[in-house]
Amino acid sequence: MAKELKTLVKDTALYGLSSIVGRFLNYLLVPLYTIKITAESGGYGVVTNVYAYTALLMVMLTFGMETTLFRFSTKEGEDAHKVYGTVLRLVTGVAMVFAILCLVFNAPISALMGYADHPEYIACMTTVVAIDAVQSIMFAHLRQQHRPLKFMALKLGYIIMSIALNLFIFLVAPLIHASHPEWMGWYDPDYSVGYIFVINLICTSSITLGFIPELKGLAYGFDRQLASRMLRYAMPILILGIAGILNQVADKITYLFIMPGTEGEVQLGIYGACSKIAMIMAMLLQAFRYAYEPFVFNQSRNKENNVMYATTMKYFVIFTLLAFLVVVFYMDLFKLLVGRTYWEGLRVVPIVMMAEIFMGIYFNLSFWYKLNDKTYWGAIMSIIACVVLLAVNIIFVPRYGYVACAWGGVAGYGTAMLLSYFIGQHYHPIRYDVKGILIYFALALTLYGISQWLSIENQWLRMSANTLLLLLFVAYIVKRDLPLRQIPFVKRFVK
Known about the structure:
The chain is an all-alpha fold. The protein has one domain. Helix content is 78%, strand content 0%. It is built from 19 helices and no strands. Helix 4 (65-73) runs antiparallel to helix 10 and helix 10 packs antiparallel against helix 11.
C-alpha cells in the first residue's frame, strides 16, 4: 500500500505543479483585470458570467467521457487503443457540431444571454469550449498513460502564453497607443473585456499543436458496440457532471437573472473576483483529482484498497484544512490578488473555501458508485445538491446578495457530501476515521473563530498572532497523524 500511496503523492505533485503554479500565475492576472476593470464598471461581472456558461458547456461537451476512458481502458478484455479512439471520435464529433451550430446562430444566442451588443464574446467562447472539450480527452489520455510531464508542459505553456498576451494588451499596448496611436490602429482602449476572450481563443488554439501525437488516436478506429456501452456508462456521469458544475456556476449564471442590470454585474464582479482567492483550494482539489481518478481505477483489484481510500481521505481533509487556515490567516496578503474596489467581497472567501472542501470530500467519496457501475447515484445526489443550491440563491440572493451565493455552495456541497457518505456505506462500506476528521474540522474552525475574535488592528501583529494559531494546528497534525520521523528529509534529523 505504501508504494501505491507514494505513486499517488508523486503524480499529485506533478499534476499539482502544472495546476497550482499555472493557476497561480494565471491568478496574477486577477489584480491586473480588477485594476484595469473597476468594480463600478461591471466588466468583471460580464467575464464571470460568460466563463460560468463555458464551464457548464465544457461538462456537456465531454459528457462523462474522461471518467469513461479511465474505466474502460482498465477493464479486462478491452483494447485500450480502441477505447481511446472511440472516445476521441465521439467527443470531437459532438464538439464540431456544437461549434458550427453556435457560430451559425450566434446572434440570437448572444441576445438570449444578454450580450446582443457583443456577439463576438459568445462566438469566441463557444469556439474555445469546443476546442477545450477535445483537448480534455487528450489530457485524460496523458493521465491514463501516466505522462504527467507532457501534461504539465502543455498546461504551463498555455498559461505562459496567456500571461504574456494579457500583459501586452493591458500594460504595453495602452502605452504604445498613447505615444504612437498610428501603430495601434487595431487597438481599442475601451474593449478590455473583449480582449480577455480573444486572448483565450488564441492560446487555446495554439496549444492544440502540442497534441498532434495524441490526435493519432483518431486512427485507432470507432467501435459502435463499444461506444454504445460507454455511452450507457457515461450518461449518468453526464447528469452528475451537469449537476456538479451547476453547483459551482449556477450562482454566477442565475445572478444576473435574479439581480439584472449594471448593479447585478457590479456585485457579480465583486463576488467573482473574491472567489478567485478561494479558488486556491480548487487548485489543490484539481491536482488531487487528476492523480486520484486513474489511481482509484488502477487499484480497484487491490485487496487493501479500502484501507488506502480511508487513509487518503483523512490526509486529504488534513491538508485542505491547513490550506484553508493559511488563506484566512493571511488574508491581508491574499487580498492583494484583487483590486481595492473589490475588497468589500473578501468576507465570502472563507465560506467559498469551505464549500470547496466539502466538494473535495464528496469527490473522494464518489468512487464507490463509479467502481460499482452505479453512476446513477452520483447523478441523483448531484441533482439534489443543485436544487438545494438554487433554492438558497433564489430565496436569499434578493436580500443578502452575493453572500447568499457563497452559503448556497456550502449547503449544496454539504448535502452531496452527506448523501454520498451514508449511501456509500451501504453499497461499499469503508471505515473512515470520522471522529478524527471531525476533530480536525472542529479545531480548524475554532482557531479561525479565535482569529476573528481577537480583532487586532495592526496587520503585522494580526498575522503574527495568526501564525501562532496556525502552528498549533500543525503541531496537532504532527502529534496525531504525521510524526516528524515519517516526514522525508526531516526524519534524518529526528531520532
